[in-house]
Amino acid sequence: MKVLVVEDSDRLQRALVTGLRQRGFAVDAAGDGEAGLERALAGQFDLIVLDLWLPKRDGLDVLRRLRRQRQDVPVLILTARDEVSDRVAGLDAGADDYLVKPFAFDELLARVRSLCRRRYGQRSREVVVGDLKLDLAARMASRAGDSVDLTPREFALLELLALRHGAVVTRREIEARLYDDRTEPASNVVDAAICRLRRKIDRDGREPLVHTRRGEGYRLGHEGAP
C-alpha cells in the first residue's frame, strides 16, 4: 500500500514516514499544500494523510481540489483544530476520517489500515484465498495453518494481490503501489519479487496460487477460478 503524507512539521513528517515505512507501507511526503496537491494528482496512492494548517495552500483547499478532480483516494485529516465545526468542515469537504493532534501512532496506524482496506472493499482484517490467510493488521500470513515468513515488502506485495484476488494486477500498478521516492525500481524488480513470493507461498508441492499472465501481470488465486 502507498501513502502520501502532507505535513509541514519536519519532525512529525519524519516520524510518520519512518513509522509507516517500518510497517511495510511505501510513503511519499510533501511539506506544503501546493506540493501535496501536485503529488496527489500525479501519483497513485491508497491513502493521503493530510494536515490542515499548511503553507502555500490550506489542507481543506487541497482536499476540495482533489474531490473536484474526482480523485476518490481516502483522506485522513491530521490537525490541531479540535472544534466540532472544524471536523464537520473537513468531513463535508470529502475527508474519510479525522484525527486530532496530539495522537498515538498506533491509533493512526489502525485508521490507515482500515481506510486502505476499505479502498479495496475489504472490511475484515483477514483475507482468505483458498488455504492462504492474511491478517492485515498483524501483517502475518499462513498457508494451511503454517506460518509464512515474509519481509515487509513481500507482505505488501501479497496484500496487494490478495485484495485483488482473482484479478490480474499489472506490473505498473505493483511498481506504483509498492515503491516510493526512496527507490527507483529496476526493470526486473517486480519479476524478482514475484519469484521470491512464489517460492514462499507455493512451496512443498502445494497448489500454485501465484500466477503470471504474460504481457498482462500477476494474479493470486486457484488456476481456472473466476
Task: Walk me through this protein's architecture.
By secondary structure, the chain is α/β, with parallel strands linked by helices. It folds into two domains: 2-119, 3-Layer(aba) Sandwich (Rossmann fold); 126-220, Winged helix-like DNA-binding domain superfamily/Winged helix DNA-binding domain (Arc Repressor Mutant, subunit A), CATH 1.10.10. The chain has eight helices and twelve strands. The protein has helices spanning 10-22, 33-42, 59-68, 84-92, 105-119, 152-163, 171-178, 189-201, and strands spanning 2-6, 26-30, 47-51, 75-79, 97-100, 126-129, 132-135, 140-143, 146-148, 168-169, 210-213, 217-220. The strands form three sheets. It has a five-stranded parallel β-sheet with strand order 2-1-3-4-5, with helices on both faces. Helix 1 links the parallel strand 1 (2-6) and strand 2.
